[in-house]
Amino acid sequence: MELNLVGTVKGEEVRLELVEGVLVVGRGADTGLRLAEASVSRRHAEVRRIGDNVTVQDLDSRNGTRVNGQPVTEPTLVQPGDRLDFAGLIFRLEGPATVGATSLNESGTLVPREEISWEEVRSRRADKRDRQSHLFQVMAEAGDLLTTRRAPEELYEPILDLVQTALDPERIFILLVEDDSDEPVVKATRLLGARKEGSLALSRTMVQRVLTQKTSFLTTDPLNDPMLDGAMSMVSQSIRTAVASPLFDNEEVIGLLYADDSRAGKRISRDELQAFTLLANGIAVAITHARYHAMEEEKARQDAELATAGSILDHILPSDLPTVEGYDLQAHLEPCLELGGDLYDARMMDDGRLAFLLGDVVGKGLGAALLVSQILSLSRFMLGEQWEPAPLIERLNREIFLSTDHVRFATAFMGYLEPDTGRVTCVNAGHNQPVLVRADGTVQQCATGGLPVGVIAESEYPTASVNLEPGDTLALFSDGIPETANDQDDEYGEERFGALVA
Description:
By secondary structure, the protein is α+β, with helices and mostly antiparallel strands. It folds into 3 domains: 4-94, Tumour Suppressor Smad4 (Sandwich); 125-292, 2-Layer Sandwich (Beta-Lactamase); 317-501, Phosphatase 2c, domain 1 (4-Layer Sandwich). Helix content is 29%, strand content 27%. The protein has 8 helices and 26 strands. The chain has helices at 118-147, 156-167, 204-213, 232-235, 270-316, 366-384, 389-403, 493-501, and strands at 4-9, 12-17, 21-26, 33-34, 45-50, 53-58, 65-67, 70-71, 76-78, 83-86, 89-94, 102-104, 110-112, 171-176, 185-191, 217-219, 241-249, 252-261, 342-348, 354-361, 410-418, 423-429, 435-437, 443-445, 464-467, 473-475. A 6-stranded antiparallel beta sheet has the order 2-1-11-10-7-8, with no helix packed on it. It has a 5-stranded mixed beta sheet with strand order 4-3-5-6-9, with no helix packed on it. It starts with a strand and ends with a helix.
């Protein structure tokens, strides 16, 4: 009579024919059935066949051996259809059905099994083929998830539908790992049948085992499963069978798919376990694609907002500089990103003076652009009221401090030029000192300074002055020029910039 030990190890079916003699089961390389799992002892158990009789004996293993859920403490007779549990790895003894063979009833007691006819065998095989065809249909439907662009949250209900169709369990859970949480987060659930109003509790041991070992896990006896250590959360809910499979994004586990059932006689077959694992793989790909699509859409939205803000900022900055007789005014702004924090302004006052402003908001992007807009609006209002440089910067500092979160601030250099005399009156709020190049090539700096605007609520800003003579150049700049570095991280520096201007 042909007898086989059949089980699933790491998602692969293992089928080993039992021949006359002794088969040692264990983790060691010298065993006949090698199970490379940490829970399995090196020499875990032995299966002995003499004629048509098969016995199993535990070899003082660390996690024990069970037959049909009962611990093996002495050589135990095994019949075709019985389940052998080697530290959580389940095998079944398969052989032809015979008169007088035994099986387990619902209470776990060995009872006679009736002989089955070839017609019934063919019927059962047909049922199996129908079941496999059904699972293939489910997998085909799962493929639709990969070809339809959806938001991640729009995938959950179709996923629950697929698992319900494939396994018909009482409870289904989708859990995803999130960056801000140490535990996977339940994203969707479905409770069916008698457990429609039941508990949402899950076995933390089973969940962590799937996440850490990155393998699918099936239990049909939670109470006696050594890998679950009693699993009281499952036993208290009378769960008879449960299955979980990791969701992979390449080699990273992004979550898991879980299903369980408390109904008597409900079991998950090897085909269903394999289908569940494949389904989880497809679901993981669909979720990953959906996340990427969501990121692309969010980036497109942000890019559109940045483009709009950039266009607004371009219109806020002066397109043309005032014409001042006897002076040549030039300005150039080159942002490193779509939206930078640099700003400048120049306009003629009613009394004939030229007001000018150069600033640099800390940071880049939309937040910096909003602060640029605020600074320009406030300064232009005060210039319209003929404010002098020091009071203007002091008021600007106070308003920026009160209207921001104190994380963003700005440096600024502001002054007035009297065209008739060449006198420049200026205030520096933490900005780079302008470079003054005299007609004879001498390089000077306008030595004045104070805190950047927006750092503290009240700050004083001293006023300085300098006289421009014919042929002199006053160059205002932001830190982007001296801090520009080459491939060797050598910064350009203010000294080189001064030499360039000279």
